[in-house]
Amino acid sequence: MQARAQLRKKLRVARRELSSEQHEDAAKRIVLQLNALPFLNEGTTIAGYLVNDGEVNLKYYINSVWQASSKKRFTLPVLHPVCKGHLLFLSYKPNTQLIWNKYNIEEPVLACKNVVPVTQCDVILMPLVGFDNKGNRLGMGGGYYDRTLSFTQRQIGSHSPPKKRRPKLVGIAHDIQEVDALPIAPWDVPLDAIVTPTRTLHFTNS
To answer: Does 12 count as an annotated binding residue?
Structure first.
């Protein structure tokens, strides 16, 4: 997987080199793109993320939803304290207390009462390092989302209904993070859509 590691390094550098003005513009433009998604507007529980390492910042989108609707709830990913390499999702409100995890990413303080089962999330907005026009996502390399969302993978040849409710999976990225084709791995979880500040790509994976 050396090709993935090299590509990941190159794309991380590229997004970090965007100017502060470009990052701010992306944060504002992503709101318009996300608001145009019917399934996102209809969903009541949305998982997001807090910006890190040059990712597209969701701050304006999250704030706009908080101000517009009291019926929606946000969750944020938290490193699972027991299942290594997995994520938990915790409720996120304006007054939620945050701490820094081992990757220097902010996350809610762990409290069992605030845990939201991943199957209760209608939509999961996921950061990514790279993507292609087939819906493939290159993450940071830890595999946290892929492990946590492995239940969403369609079983080839199986006609039985899914055992767990499947959320819509949406990758969020800067336009410069697109590549012609990603080297994919068997455990990669494909996305339903990829949203950039200028466009939205839709895929059929469910």
So the answer is: no
6 assigned binding-site residue: yes
pLDDT digit of tens for each residue in the chain (206 aa)?
Answer: 678 889 999 999 999 999 999 999 999 999 999 999 999 999 999 999 999 999 999 999 999 999 987 789 999 999 999 999 999 999 999 999 999 999 999 999 999 999 999 999 999 999 999 999 999 999 998 999 999 999 887 543 445 545 567 899 999 999 999 999 888 888 888 899 999 999 999 997 54
Going from N- to C-terminal start, the domains of the chain cover 2-200
* 54 annotated as a binding-site residue: no
Q: Under CATH, what is the fold of the domain 2-200?
A: Rossmann fold (3.40.50)
Say if residue 61 carries a ligand binding annotation: no
Q: Is the dihedral of CA 110, 191, 52, 8 positive or negative?
A: positive
pTM: 0.91
Q: Is 165 annotated as a binding residue?
A: no
> Alpha-carbon distance 122 to 43, whole Å?
5
Please indicate if the annotation marks 4 as binding a ligand. Answer: yes
